[in-house]
Write a structure and sequence with these properties.
Elements lengths: L9 E6 L4 E4 L2 E3 L6 H12 L3 E6 L11 E4 L3 H11 L5 E4 L6 E3 L19 E3 L3 H6 L6 E8 L3 H11 L4 E6 L11 E8 L2 E9 H19 L1
Parallel strand pairs: 1-4, 1-6, 4-5, 6-9, 9-10
Antiparallel strand pairs: 2-3, 7-8, 10-11, 11-12
The protein binds cytidine-5'-monophosphate.
Cytidine-5'-monophosphate binds next to α3 and β9.
Length: 221
Amino acid sequence: PKTQLLSGIRLMLTAGPTREALDPVRFISNHSSGKMGFALAQAAVELGAEVTLVSGPVSLATPAGVRRLDVESAAQMHSVVMEHIDAQQIFIACAAVADYAPKTVASHKIKKTTADTMVIELTRNPDIVANVAALPNKPFTVGFAAETRDVEKYARDKLGRKGLDMIAANNVAKEGQGFNADTNALTVFWPTGQTDLPLAGKNELAGHLLTLIAEKYHDTH
Ligand code: C5P
């Protein structure tokens, strides 16, 4: 049998949105569907990896052979990732993590008042992928960048600032790419190079990206 590129490699991904609670019935979130992360998890299993998928709330079936850990908030995603990261050789941050969360979560439903405006105070969430990349024993770490302009400039900035080994950037302003779409196109950057992965179905694209990640991982390990 053909040896697989990621045979026995432990790989963790984050996927989907996070939900930041305001009170027992309300939250702040975003339109991430989780499709790209789930497609990558499936592609990783097909390459022979042992896959742990840390997922925010999505309505997608777990790919066969994937260990799935469900979370809601960015804080929960951060602690579940950190709890299991030591065993991982590759980490791919695909989740659309909320940048901020409400400073306090009301224990009862917030009531409307007669005032026309309301202020919600927010605090910064931990940057999960940056914290993983800062670990002394860090896995090969891959991030995503959704940009609407100057894709290369912002992606290379994130690669350096967050200490990543690779970043996959998409121009979400283009038709058929990004949030909720079934197709996507990516430009992938690493410290010494870059390559374009052209518009394709998310499953096909996931296979191409995982193959590239596996090759770069093996170049450095
Ligand atoms: O800085 P920005 O949010 O654009 O970076 C996107 C990348 O960082 C994605 O890989 C995303 O999963 C990751 N991220 C994270 N934790 C955050 C914010 C972003 O892991 N709090």
